[in-house]
Q: What sequence folds into this?
């Protein structure tokens, strides 16, 4: 990227109208009107629409010599180009949508391009799947993609390109992939899915590299034919439903000018993803895509309430990201204007705040999420991703400024007062070295589990002994850890629902020990018919802490950070805050309020979002916010929102902290501390 300002730099209101429409019925897209489409975008205050050029179905919305143009465009081939030109003539920036890998028509027409999976060697489409999948490692398919990129470059004037589905939906066993597995990995047949098998992990790392290389091919091809156009690959699978088999890692994101993707989780997943995108994007703002349908595009006729959409948009705004709202077109090519009226009112809430979207996210604690480690070698229902999301949620609920660490940002760990590495797995030697250095230099590191014993050995000198025979083990506080376990005691210890790993480590402080239940899970006798109460007390370490270099490590055998029960969340926070230096932001706000802070030079911006405002906007009484600052603030202001003029707020300053009380919170507010 050059230093020249790019179109997306100050573009925060974006949209896509989903158009995966087949053409077997002459009614499909027969009433499509560029003028009506544009009028709806204008009503919604859209700055940058994304417009379909090719869909999952394989239908193109432009004349193509190598693909298939949608039948509705016959005799009106320039329909979509007219829409593109109309938007650009009226000051909007236009991004073209192109579906990679998902292409039903070409998969049908070119069986040799198909992804195969399973013993029957059939493509997912042949087995009844909705979409045909083309293998990105097939050179003929790549040639097809390159030709279509050149065709689009010749036919449209665009500001950006978006490539969807840049991931592996299945483990491909097509002849071309099998030849490469043999040549590059030495596999005559593929290993079975087993995360304890080094060969399986080798295969997964190869697929990640392969998908990253394909993304690079597409991006470089785009830049060759469309100089100056931005490129984005859908990076949703990195944080959404995809596990470590999907190949969506930072290697794909490296080929994007900015990070973004379509997400459908709850607001805490939303917040986690915004923090992750903020940390990995090459350029700000990142892009957060949400659906106007409640809950997914499958609910075509159900639109989220204005309150729901507003909360989602303002949560993205709190992270200074670009909100992107996805709609779906009617088969005949019409749009529901009521939807765009609603989107327009939602974006009107955001408009007054856009001038403040700059600065650096304030994060005292970094949660390490490794896209290469979304697995559990024992097949349990948690992994680094789930633990990262849930530990981030707990930190949000306790108003601890938090960011997300990625595989590409470990060199910047020194900016965090503490790092959480929950159920960490799949990290490289280089990233492992960064974690060790972070602790040696004085950092506080929390680790759970033993997926990365190499890291535990380097940090703690730990050796793995094995797992408990029992599949549900309690953790009882020791005398040293008693104050940290909240209401849990040796007699009434903290419960887990898994077998726990045992390690040997010297010169550490043991805060909690294992206490197995009375009986093992497979025994036909019970101490209690509904539960399995704690049995004998052991001296096996379950939670320890150790001084390492100038820093400290906390290790938990169980992923307590992943547990949603309030009592166990309190123990996790108690462990962390015992050793965590003073945080930048403190507050007595209710748990449902997220505080997101940015440093703008010497000034600080604080956004407050009520994460329960999904059905109706209910006022929350004011609460205190305490901010660590280097000097007495010049003033603290409540930033102007819709119909709310900017005004100063009273504050006190003592002990290096400015303390003020907020006004009544109705879904979103922003405060500015001027130094």
A:
């Amino acid at each position: 990227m050059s230093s020249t300002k790019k179109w997306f730099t100050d573009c925060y209101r974006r949209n896509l109208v989903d158009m995966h429409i087949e053409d077997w019925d002459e009614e499909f897209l027969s009433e499509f009107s560029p003028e009506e489409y544009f009028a709806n975008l204008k009503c919604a205050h859209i700055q940058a629409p994304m417009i379909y050029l090719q869909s999952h179905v394989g239908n193109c919305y432009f004349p193509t010599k190598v693909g298939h143009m949608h039948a509705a465009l016959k005799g009106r081939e320039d329909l979509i180009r007219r829409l593109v030109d109309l938007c650009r003539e009226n000051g909007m920036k236009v991004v073209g949508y192109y579906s990679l890998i998902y292409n039903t028509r070409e998969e049908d027409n070119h069986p040799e391009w198909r992804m195969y999976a399973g013993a029957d060697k059939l493509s997912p489409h042949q087995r009844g799947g909705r979409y045909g999948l083309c293998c990105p490692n097939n050179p003929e398919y790549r040639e097809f993609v390159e030709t279509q990129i050149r065709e689009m470059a010749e036919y449209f004037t665009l500001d950006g390109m978006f490539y969807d589905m840049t991931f592996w939906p299945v483990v491909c066993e097509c002849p071309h992939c099998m030849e490469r597995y043999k040549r590059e990995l030495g596999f005559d047949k593929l290993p079975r899915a087993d995360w304890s098998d080094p060969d399986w992990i080798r295969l997964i790392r190869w697929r990640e590299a392969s998908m990253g290389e394909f993304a690079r091919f597409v991006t470089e091809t785009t830049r060759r034919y469309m100089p100056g156009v931005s490129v984005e690959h859908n990076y949703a699978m990195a944080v959404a439903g995809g596990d470590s088999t999907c190949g969506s890692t930072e290697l794909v994101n490296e080929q994007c000018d900015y990070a973004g993707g379509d997400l459908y989780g709850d607001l805490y997943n939303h917040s986690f993803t915004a923090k992750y995108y903020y940390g990995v994007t090459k350029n700000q703002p990142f892009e957060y895509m949400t659906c106007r349908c409640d809950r997914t595009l499958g609910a075509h006729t159900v639109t989220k309430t204005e309150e729901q959409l507003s909360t989602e948009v303002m949560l993205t705004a709190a992270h200074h990201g670009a909100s992107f709202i996805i709609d779906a077109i009617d088969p005949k090519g019409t749009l529901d204007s009521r939807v765009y009226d609603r989107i327009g009112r939602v974006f009107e809430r955001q408009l007054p705040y856009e001038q403040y979207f700059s600065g650096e996210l304030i994060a005292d604690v970094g949660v390490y999420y490794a896209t290469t480690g979304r697995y559990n070698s024992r097949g349990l229902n948690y992994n680094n991703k789930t633990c990262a999301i849930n530990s981030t949620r707990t930190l949000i609920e306790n108003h601890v400024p938090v960011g997300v660490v990625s595989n590409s940002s470990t060199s910047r760990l020194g900016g965090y007062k503490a790092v959480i590495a929950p159920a960490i797995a799949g990290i490289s030697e280089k990233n492992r070295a960064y974690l060790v250095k972070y602790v040696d230099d004085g950092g506080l590191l929390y680790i759970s589990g033993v997926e990365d014993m190499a890291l535990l050995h380097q940090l703690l000198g730990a050796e793995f002994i094995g797992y408990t025979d029992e599949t549900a083990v309690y953790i009882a506080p020791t005398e040293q850890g008693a104050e940290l376990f909240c209401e849990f005691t040796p007699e009434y210890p903290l419960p887990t629902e898994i077998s726990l790993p045992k390690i040997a480590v010297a010169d550490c402080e043991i805060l909690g020990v294992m206490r197995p239940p009375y009986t093992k899970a497979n025994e036909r006798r019970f101490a209690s018919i509904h539960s399995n109460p704690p049995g004998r007390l052991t001296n096996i370490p379950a939670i320890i802490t150790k001084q390492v270099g100038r820093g400290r490590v906390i290790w938990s055998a169980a992923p307590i950070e992943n547990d949603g029960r309030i009592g166990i969340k309190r123990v996790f926070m108690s462990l962390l805050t015992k050793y965590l230096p003073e945080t930048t932001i403190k507050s007595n706000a209710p748990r449902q309020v997220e505080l997101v802070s940015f440093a703008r030079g010497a000034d600080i911006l604080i956004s407050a979002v009520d994460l329960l405002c999904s059905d109706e906007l209910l006022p929350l009484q004011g609460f205190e916010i305490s901010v660590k600052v280097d000097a007495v603030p010049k003033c603290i202001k409540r930033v102007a929102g819709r119909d709310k003029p900017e005004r100063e707020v009273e504050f006190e300053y003592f002990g290096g902290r400015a303390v003020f009380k907020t006004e009544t919170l109705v879904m979103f507010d922003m405060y500015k501390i001027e130094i």
